[in-house]
What does this fold into?
Amino acid sequence: MKIKIVPRSSIVGRLPEGCSALPLNAKQAAVACFSEGDLRSFGRGGEGSAGGRQERSRASRNVSALGGRQDFVLYVKGIRGASVPIYVHVRRDVWLETSMTESTLKKLFSKVFSDTMRRWKWAPNNLHVLIAARPSSRWLARSRLPRREGVLAGINSIEINPKLLKSYSPHAHWRCLVHEFAHLKRNLEPGVIMKGRAWRGGHDDRFCDLLGMVDPIVANSPKDCRYYRDDVT
It folds into this structure.
């Protein structure tokens, strides 16, 4: 699976078989194709033109800004059963260290989407997942809201420490991702004042209510929300 960031105006008519498109913002879209040849047909101008070079450069900056190479796309069921793409960015050596497969990661995200949508009636759009190459020892997962402008405009992202996937149980994987989904949901609600791409309110009552709807450990013990440790299995 190959991915390219292109102008939305270049997506006209029916997409070639094996390709899908996802709008990123008012001007850009991400096109994913199984065939490199089909992917080359998108963008202003040919591969050798200034327009083609500009689009490749923009796609490269988009990947670089997220901290890794776009490696594969997972499809899970979203609202009303619609197929939702999740763009996974990971370096090959880091991916091999986790001992995960695309199918096990898809199963994990499918469960997280299903469990959170059932309770919140909400799912994140345009989700990119970065499995970090040089993570901090302070966290196992963290989320970032979309930027309003630039190559990261419209992108929700979750960064995962490979240690989580390598050394912790599947239940810990699920709990960490549900926790980050709760942050994305809370941060997008009306009345939240953002500072940069993060909300400084942390684990407030509303956040804990959201998390408690899905995570039974939090529901039974509020302190496990306010003083949440993402290494609890």
In short: The beta strands are 2-7, 19-23, 28-33, 70-77, 83-89, 127-131, 141-144, 156-160. The chain is about 40% helix and 20% strand.
